[in-house]
Q: What sequence folds into this?
């Protein structure tokens, strides 16, 4: 609002340098040469003729000749000239493209050329709209009308001035000859089509965010400036170095591998949405799509990181691990990621859960890491922070990469996915269809909706618990309650991530489940009680005999494994000291406890039985 | 001299009213000059760029600056006058806003002319952009300077050496306007959000005939694209007419035949 107060304003107000503008200007000047420039012809109107009109094909031919390129590239370049506003079309003035036929164009006057130094002012736009309103007697286009109203609201204090200036400019224009007036109007209109594009089109002058410093100004050579340079060079010296043959080799390999997967460099199927405005490509490559595309599946074979970073790939991998009964590795890794990137307030809680589920001796989903790492991690967990599980996570990551990843690529799961992957056909849009697509352009889903969808997805996953895998989103299986006879068991928790209840990989035999209905519920309760502190709202207290057995259970655990880290088992200490359950139904947590080899190698058959028993709802 | 039987207060308001009217006239003329300057500036670098155009620009610029200095002095003195009645103060503030906006526009236009004039020296006419403009800006300049007719006899033939001097003067003038703008902000505190304009939101069309003819031209401008279509529709209409005439002729022949 105020006059340029660039000195007092510490915000980002400078437009970044657009190097293309300087270069384009040079080309434009070359085009003007009467001998070697573009051939111009007069444009015949009903009343008069206006000189200096050029045809699209002439422009393209000249560009192809000057730069020694083929017609397609010259055409793209010509379109860029039009899109930036150096040449404007005389017919169909809203579409800023070059047509390779006899449609006419004209050069824009240098006053209206896009510049980097002077931003396009809203005041000028308001004046232009007011003038247009005068000329068209109140009939403005819809978006112009909207802009006009908005500017009237925001620049209300200047409105007298704007209206007066518009009138004066209009009157001054009347002093000129009629053809000149027409040309000036066309020039101004073309200028505003570039800088205030009508809805549904994009402006070539979109440059992103404003900069903090003026790229045109020279930086003052103060001591601070030199100090900054010194710090920068010192840090550059301290950087670790790699032999250039190695780094270049890696770059070349990367480029070679990813070349066909880059939409910039290679055609992408079915069609590049940025070029054709058709979003099939994005729809086919959504994060949680049922059937991935062939290119996507191919990318999973490039590296393990690629597989894990793609949500669909991760799902596939998870499925494979499920079949191999080593899902806890991936679950642990995901838990660590969640800890690292999650909210600070939940770190302690999450760390506890992860410990109890994966790391503790006797944990339901114990992971196999070496002793030293385990020691370090457990020590760190006394005072958990974001990166406390990093060594363990790295270890598990390398384990999965070296071991499971290779097997995954040879597995029937992967082969099946590869077979089912689709390879969409290429679109072949005609020009008319492209225009149609451009008109139908719509903004994508808002991030809020996407986040809600993700949440629903996670809740769904949480609901689809597979007891054999006992994934982290376990809720107590409702149908197990049928066996156990406990009806008032809490169901899904509010926060699906990492709120797992009991689950024992080392499950009892199905027979024991059927007979010993309380054992499963016991275990559930135990973990539920353990988490009771963490999720006070979620758990409902259960019956007495269960808690009795819980106490006995925890006691047994303590005896079995000797001392344990303080905090974790404190929560498991018996709360109610009722008589120790003498019932025979108290079973040890599992016959195959973590002190023994990892559960996945044992009890496979049992799990299969259990799964079949449990899967009937 | 009529008997002026005024109290001091009245005297103040009367003179303030007169000053207001004066200032409005000055600000209006500044707006007019700035508008003309913009039209002239849009020709710089185009095929009609010439020494004459530059000269016209210079003259318009000088007029604008002269007006600006006068208005600034007036407005500053009046707005710093604490005893100014409220109504007049509001009016003055509106003029102030108009004045500062005009100065901003003038500043940008001058910078652009300076920059473009740098690239396109009028000596080398090969690179002047073929914009399609045919006439010069003489009539516009005449309007700006409020002269009935710009005397074309005094077409300036500045020797080339003076061109650099011209540039330095221009630079100086730009910085002068710069300082004026900064100065104004320092001296007078006008809260822009308090200023309420009393003009209409939409400018009324100035004269129907004129805009109509221009509209016609602009329609012509877009006509070439639609020409094939028009021709086709014309042919269709002609055919229809012909068919009707034919039917009428046959009917009349039948009547004659049967009667």
A:
């Amino acid at each position: 609002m105020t006059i340029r107060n660039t000195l007092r304003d510490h915000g980002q107000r400078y437009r970044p340098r657009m190097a293309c503008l300087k270069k384009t200007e040079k080309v434009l000047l070359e085009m003007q040469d009467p001998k070697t420039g573009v051939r111009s012809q007069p444009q015949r109107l009903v009343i008069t003729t206006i000189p200096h009109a050029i045809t699209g094909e002439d422009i393209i031919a000249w560009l192809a000749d000057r730069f020694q390129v083929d017609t397609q590239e010259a055409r793209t370049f010509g379109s860029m000239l039009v899109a930036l506003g150096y040449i404007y079309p005389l017919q169909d003035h809203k579409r800023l493209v070059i047509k390779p036929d006899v449609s006419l164009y004209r050069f824009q006057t240098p006053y209206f050329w896009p510049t980097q130094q002077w931003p396009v002012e809203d005041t000028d736009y308001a004046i232009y709209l007011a003038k247009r309103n005068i000329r068209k007697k109140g009939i403005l286009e819809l978006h112009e009308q909207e802009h006009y109203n908005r500017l009237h609201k925001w620049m209300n204090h200047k409105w007298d001035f704007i209206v007066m200036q518009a009138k004066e400019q209009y009157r001054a224009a009347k002093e000129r000859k009629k053809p000149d007036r027409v040309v000036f109007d066309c020039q101004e209109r073309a200028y505003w089509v570039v800088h205030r594009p009508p809805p549904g089109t994009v402006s070539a002058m979109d440059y992103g965010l404003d900069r903090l410093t003026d790229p045109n100004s020279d930086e003052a050579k103060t001591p601070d400036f030199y100090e900054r340079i010194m710090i920068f060079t010192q840090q550059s010296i301290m950087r670790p170095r790699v032999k250039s043959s190695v780094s270049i080799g890696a770059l070349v390999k990367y480029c070679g591998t990813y070349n066909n997967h880059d939409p910039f460099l290679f055609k992408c199927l079915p069609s590049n949405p940025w070029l054709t405005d058709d979003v099939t490509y994005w729809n086919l490559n959504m994060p949680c799509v049922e059937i991935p595309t062939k290119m996507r599946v191919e990318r999973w074979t490039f590296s393990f990181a690629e597989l894990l970073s793609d949500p669909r790939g991760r799902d596939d991998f998870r499925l494979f691990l499920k079949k191999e009964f080593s899902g806890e590795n991936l679950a642990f890794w995901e838990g660590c990621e969640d800890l690292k990137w999650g909210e600070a307030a939940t770190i302690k809680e999450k760390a506890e859960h992860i410990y109890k589920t994966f790391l503790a001796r006797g944990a339901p989903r114990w992971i196999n890491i070496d002793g030293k790492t385990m020691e370090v991690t457990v020590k760190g967990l006394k005072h958990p922070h974001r990166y406390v599980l990093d060594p363990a996570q790295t270890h598990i990551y390398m384990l999965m990469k070296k071991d499971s990843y290779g097997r995954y690529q040879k597995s029937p799961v992967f082969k099946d996915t590869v077979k089912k992957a689709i390879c969409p056909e290429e679109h072949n849009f005609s020009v008319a269809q492209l225009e149609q697509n451009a008109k139908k352009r719509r903004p994508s889903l808002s991030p809020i909706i996407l986040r809600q969808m993700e949440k629903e997805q996670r809740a769904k996953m949480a609901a689809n618990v597979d007891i054999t895998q006992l994934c982290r989103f376990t809720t107590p299986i409702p149908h197990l309650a049928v066996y156990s006879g406990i009806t008032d068991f809490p169901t899904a928790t509010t926060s699906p991530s990492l709120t797992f209840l009991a689950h024992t990989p080392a499950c009892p035999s199905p027979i024991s489940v059927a007979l010993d209905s309380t054992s499963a519920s016991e275990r559930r309760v135990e973990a539920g009680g353990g988490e009771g502190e963490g999720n006070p709202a979620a758990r409902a207290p259960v019956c007495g005999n269960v808690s009795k057995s819980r106490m006995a259970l925890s006691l047994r655990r303590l005896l079995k494994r000797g001392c344990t880290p303080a905090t974790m088992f404190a929560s498991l200490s018996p709360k109610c000291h009722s008589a120790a359950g003498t019932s025979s139904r108290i079973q040890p947590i599992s016959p195959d406890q973590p002190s023994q080899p990892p559960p996945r190698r044992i009890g496979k058959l049992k799990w299969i039985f259990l799964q079949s028993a449990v899967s009937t709802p | 001299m009529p008997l002026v039987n005024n109290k001091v207060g009245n005297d103040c308001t009367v003179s303030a009213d007169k000053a207001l009217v004066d200032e409005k006239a000055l600000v209006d003329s500044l707006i007019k000059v700035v508008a003309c300057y913009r039209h002239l500036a849009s020709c710089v670098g185009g095929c009609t760029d010439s020494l004459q155009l530059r000269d016209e620009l210079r003259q318009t610029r000088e007029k604008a600056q002269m007006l600006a200095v006068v208005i600034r002095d007036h407005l500053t003195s009046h707005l710093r006058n604490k005893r100014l009645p409220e109504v007049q103060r509001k009016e003055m503030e509106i003029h102030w806003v108009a004045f500062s906006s005009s100065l901003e526009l003038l500043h940008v236009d001058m910078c652009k002319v300076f920059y473009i004039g740098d690239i396109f020296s009028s000596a080398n006419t090969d690179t002047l952009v073929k914009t399609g403009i045919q006439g010069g800006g003489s009539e516009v300049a005449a309007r700006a300077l409020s002269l009935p007719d710009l005397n074309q006899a005094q077409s300036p033939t500045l020797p080339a050496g003076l061109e650099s001097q011209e540039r330095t003067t221009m630079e100086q003038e730009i910085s002068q306007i710069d300082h004026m703008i900064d100065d104004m902000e320092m001296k007078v505190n006008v809260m822009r959000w308090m200023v309420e304009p009393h003009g209409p939101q939409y400018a009324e069309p100035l004269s129907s005939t004129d805009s109509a003819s221009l509209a016609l031209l602009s329609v012509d401008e877009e006509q070439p694209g639609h020409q094939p279509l028009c021709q086709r529709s014309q042919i269709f209409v002609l055919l229809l007419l012909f068919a009707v005439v034919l039917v009428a002729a046959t009917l009349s022949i039948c009547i004659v035949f049967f009667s």
